[in-house]
Specification:
43% of the residues lie in helices and 13% in strands. The strands form 4 sheets. Strands 1, 2, 3, 6, 7, 8, 9, 10, 11, 14 and 15 form an 11-stranded mixed sheet that branches. It is globular and about 80 Å long. It binds pyridoxal-5'-phosphate.
Length: 710
Amino acid sequence: MDSEPNLFSNLPQRLAGLGDLAANLWWSWHPEARMLFKMIDRQAWKESVHNPIKMIRDLPCKILESAAGDREYLRHYDVVLSQFNKYMEKKGCWFLNETSGPDIPSIAYFSAEYGLHHSIPFYAGGLGFLAGDHLKECSDLMVPLIAVGFMYPEGYVRQLIREDGWQESMDQTLDRDAASISRVLNENGQQVVVRVPLIEPSIHVAVWKIAVGLVDLYLLDTDIEINDPWNRGISAHLYTGDIEQRLRQEIVLGIGGSKVLGTLGIKHAAVHLNEGYAAFALMERIRERVQEGLSYEEALNQVRRTSIFTTHTPVPAGHDVFPFQLIEKYFYSYWPSLGLSRDTFLQLGVHPETPDTGFNMTALALRLSKHINGVSKQHAKITRGMWHCLWPDVSENKVPIDHVTNGIHVPTWIEPKMELLFNKYFGAGWLDDHDNPLVWEFIEEIPDEELWKTHYWLKIKLIDAIRERTRRRWFKDRISPSAAVSGGILMDHSILTIGFARRFASYKRADLIFYDMERLKKLLNDRWRPIQIIFAGKAHPDDDPGKRILQKIVSACKNPEVGGRIAFVENYEEQIAQYMVHGVDVWLNNPMLNMEASGTSGMKAALNGVPHLSIIDGWWKEGYNGKNGWAFGEKKEDDDQDRTDAEAMYQIIEEKIIPLYYRCSDDSIPHAWVKIMKESIKSNAPRFSARRMVKEYIRKFYTDALKETF
Ligand SMILES: *Cc1c(COP(=O)(O)O)cnc(C)c1O
């Protein structure tokens, strides 16, 4: 089955390749490809919010024709197109020693969200970016993988901050035809629509596809005519708070997703679940085998040996638990088709320590997968403790839950100017070998002045962008002067800048730095060595405590006593994340101890020379080496943990960070600071890359799972 062709009636023949390029997200992690779109019309590129499909569609023929007649442009075009075509021709699988195409067994990757680019808003936070980065890296590494997810026409939340600091959500529906997404068509040229098996009343999904380099991501869309309104709304929002609708989402993702792969004739030998939301996919795999004549036990055994489950959170609210009667309502005709009784079926989702609480999706995924991992060493340890009850016969450290620490897709998160600087000193081809720590030793060759100037340029870019956004809001929306101040109009690029951007889940303690307001005000308003802070982040629409923390921060920004030195940037999304992780001086992370499974935004910052100031948790427990940033957070029993942590944080800022940052030599370069920047880049970039991560998945799980023969 095919995807619809991209019809750009306005594209001259000589530039036809732009259509192919725009239709594959490969462009998003290749700056030279993005430049190709930008070169045509800088303004239009910006106005399309970096969405090539939309931009080309809206451009007058005249402009495209003039590009088609511009020799310099065509030179650039031909080079990028040949790189793209070469990339897309790659075939085979090195770790299975297979060179041919269609016979290579593949992995189906399931995730409820994907963070790929800001023009495709199908993510809420870190889990989504991890999935997006995983797909991009699997493409770069030629891992035979296909992915399944949701089309969320209304995205997550478009955040608008009211004058009183309360977060409002603004509706904004994605124009599916103006993004790098295409309909999957059947032989009659119509979009494929699949009925989710055995679920009554029936639910249908239409199928879309995003090409992520060599990896195809299939998206399920319930917003189609044939569905009744309740069903149409299943994929409207990520993580809906309505428990029944949430269950229906997970049924659609897991069972519907498997059915879609079957309908499209996509064979897969293994399944990788990114979090437990899609765990029903494993159930459906068992059912398919039972239907083919295997006993339940045999089917279970096959499915277990070829299933990989990555769990992502130690926070109980992160694990979905559904009331048994809801499960019964949707699955009463399902368990017979597995050859199971009601009770044995329900037992699959029971948490042995709290059997009455309901059907636990994590418990289900753990029971149906052989290959299980947490997303950092520390998180795996905590997870083994949490789920020891499922393996009561072994000691806790023998619980079969391994770890693969998260990583970020380096070509996506490295700032292009920084990349150019590295190109100059690391030698050609370094990016192809970026998980090799030796490559990064060349960081020492970069003169301090050049690295500092590049960083400083990025900081100016960030602060200019924030100010310009706020100015536009002032001009267009007539926001109040105090809202302009909280929007960052008084930000100053010569000041030490701390960045904090993430979801406003309470455990992340966005307001910890406000613990001692007087002490903070002194730091902000210091005559000679002040600091400033830039915040961004969204609270889940149902999370009132999160919204209150957000409101508290926005009000603080408006308080004249903080001197305009704290800003809150509205509507945190991928583009703002890029600006922030590239442009601040220090990346702050202060969740409650043992609550952050890994965290990834700090890795993005570290890669760009922005050192991490963080609770010693998640990835930072592995990354911190005493020279590449700062760590705090000591568990104190019977103490006020917030106070202990805040105290430690203030102390590091006052005694270490500020003196180092403002200590310049005669040449106006803070050499001691640049030393930390360099250490941050070289020690973290290779280790916390998605390349290292995907290779670890291959080594620990994928090879084994794909080599199973039944
Ligand atoms: C990286 C990223 C995240 C995840 O950040 P954490 O460190 O895991 O909190 C969330 N949102 C966006 C937009 C990101 O780019």
